[in-house]
Design goal:
This protein has 14 helices and 23 strands. It has 556 residues and is α+β, with helices and mostly antiparallel strands.
Length: 556
């Protein structure tokens, strides 16, 4: 690229929202609601890296409607795709061949799903997008925020979308188009877990100073159409235990909704220690358990995906604001881990951020800190929601699944009685530091998929409808290309070839096993961000690919 790049064109708005999930859409809607209520016009733009809103949304999902009730109280009358109330709630501990059901009266009250709904969060997001557009929000799908823009004083000015038409060799193709600058008085970042721009902002403004490291899990999900005779609409089932050992955190969900549809998912906490562990293969093995297989057998798998989940909770929430913008939703990490719910908190924090930004714009301010958002959060139901479960994740990490679950459950019961622990446990080290050396661990022999209930990675990626323009620079960047083979392979047997749920990373050898090299199949990437989180040397950086690249989830 010897010739200078053309100048970017730009568009200016009062507020820019980056990300079209529940948090970003709630923020955009709330901004325009306030504009109508107070007769003060405010321009709002939302960009979404997926090919359409909802294309990259993956969640269980059982939602607590508290956020939606506040945002759009008459959502039922307006036709929201939320029509499966939870009718039964089951919690099971799995062993290698058997299972133990935990009676519901032992659950802490906050674990009760009465009044919640089983949904496709992608479908809910698409519906929210129509509501936002009706209110006058400009939504641009297929445009990823690739770069944060700054004013001369260091405050955030907005974002730039990625350039299009750059070849794999870095040369500009005939189709080259420069990205667009989207400038705003305030920018709200709603990228979800481990957002690439949010990660930069946290580092630049030291937003995590004095906080515990953010913790993560990887969630893998399949959507199945099952035998109508086995379908129990409204049934919710969660499990702990097998196939994970007691030292490895995680669990599963099985949700019956819609017309003979079942969402089946599996979460592995990313502080696992054994570098031979493969979250994808643990998920496939889990489905072979008699308590799970009986539901799926004879059905048809119709979609697959994976996504990182924030798990740090209360003590890991970073400083929320910086000059010119704020983090909302899972960009900041408001998931309630024991409830396995975050969309309600994402929506509520999106609304709080929007209200602070609206008041600032109306007052004639721009590019300063939205301190009113932080104050609103600290006096909100979200803050209380996270605070009362803040010790559950550390208990699981320190004491393992069985003892940790018992201590966490006791703590939640005590909190319900107003007798919670007077201290906040720490998480300790970040997830990428938790791996033991391969020489200290035993390889895991995973069974071959049967093609009926369990499957391989490539056929799974096919069902995610993942697509990337092949002739583009690889969006998974290695800080040092030598590390995977020179260090990760001898030390950890290069765990990227196992923690990635999409077959992106391979160690390729000659026929005689010699001359190993690290291969990145970037076109397979489902944008889960696990590599950015779990790589032991933090050598992999996930960046946005060109245009609308990535998965295209239909109903996840």
């Amino acid at each position: 690229m010897s010739e200078p790049l053309p100048e970017r064109e730009y568009m200016e708005y009062d507020v820019l929202v980056v990300g079209g999930g529940p948090a970003g859409l709630s923020a955009a809607i709330r901004l325009r609601q306030l504009a109508a209520e107070q007769d003060f016009d405010i321009s709002v733009c939302l960009i979404e890296k997926g090919s359409e809103v909802g294309a990259h949304i993956l969640s269980g999902a059982v939602i607590d409607p508290i956020g939606l009730n506040k945002l759009i109280p008459d959502w039922k009358e307006q036709g929201a795709p939320i029509d499966t109330p939870v009718t039964s709630d089951h919690f099971i501990v799995l062993g290698p061949s058997g299972s133990l059901s935990i009676p519901s009266f032992l659950y802490p009250p906050l674990m009760n799903n009465h009044g919640n709904y089983i949904v496709s969060l992608a479908s809910v997001s698409r519906w929210l997008a129509t509501k936002a557009e009706e209110l006058g929000v400009e939504i641009y799908p297929g445009f990823a925020g690739a770069e944060v823009l700054y004013n001369e004083d260091g405050s955030v000015r907005g974002v730039a979308t990625g350039d299009m038409g750059v070849g794999k060799d870095g040369e500009l193709k005939d189709s080259y188009t420069r990205g667009m600058e989207l400038r705003a008085k305030y920018t709200l970042f709603a990228e979800g877990a481990r957002g690439s721009l949010s990660k930069e902002l946290i580092r630049k403004f030291k937003l995590d100073e004095g906080r515990e490291p953010q913790k993560f899990g990887i969630g893998l999900k399949e959507l199945w159409e099952i035998d109508p005779a086995k379908h129990k609409k409204g049934k919710v089932q969660h499990t702990l235990g097998w196939p994970l050992d007691n030292a490895t955190g995680g669990g599963s969900f099985l949700y019956h909704f819609g017309e003979n549809l079942v969402s089946v998912g599996f979460v592995v906490h990313l502080n696992y220690k054994n570098p031979y562990l493969s979250p994808f293969d643990e998920f496939q093995r889990f489905k072979q358990h008699p308590a799970i297989r009986e539901t799926l057998e004879g059905g048809k798998r119709i979609a697959y995906g994976a996504r990182a989940i924030t798990e740090g909770g209360f003590q890991s929430v970073p400083k929320l604001t910086f000059p010119g913008g704020a983090l909302i939703g899972c960009s900041a990490g408001f998931v309630n881990v024991p409830r396995i719910k975050g969309s309600h908190n994402a929506m509520l924090t999106g609304m709080m951020g929007a209200e602070a930004a609206f008041d600032a714009v109306k007052a004639g301010r721009q590019a300063d800190e939205l301190t009113a958002y932080t104050e609103a959060y600290e006096h909100s139901s979200v803050y209380k929601d996270l605070k009362r479960v803040r010790n559950v994740k550390p208990f699981l990490s320190r004491f393992g699944t069985i003892v940790g679950m018992a201590l966490g459950g006791l703590d939640m019961w005590m909190n319900n009685l107003g007798l919670g622990l007077p201290f906040t446990l720490k998480h300790g080290k970040p997830d990428h530091e938790s791996l033991k050396k391969a020489s200290e661990c035993k390889p895991i022999d995973y069974p071959k998929p049967d093609g009926k209930v369990s499957f391989d990675k490539l056929s799974s990626v096919f069902l995610s409808a993942t697509n990337h323009e092949e002739d583009q620079p690889v969006h998974l960047k290695l800080k040092d290309p030598a590390i995977p083979i020179a260090y990760n392979l001898p030390t950890f047997d290069e765990p990227a070839q196992r923690y990635c749920p999409a077959g992106v990373y391979e160690v390729v050898r000659e026929a005689d096993g010699s001359n190993p090299r690290f291969q990145i199949n970037a076109q397979n990437c489902v944008h889960c961000k696990t590599c950015d989180i779990k790589d032991p040397t933090q050598n992999i950086t996930w960046t946005v690919p060109e245009g609308a690249g990535g998965p295209n989830y239909p109903n996840m």
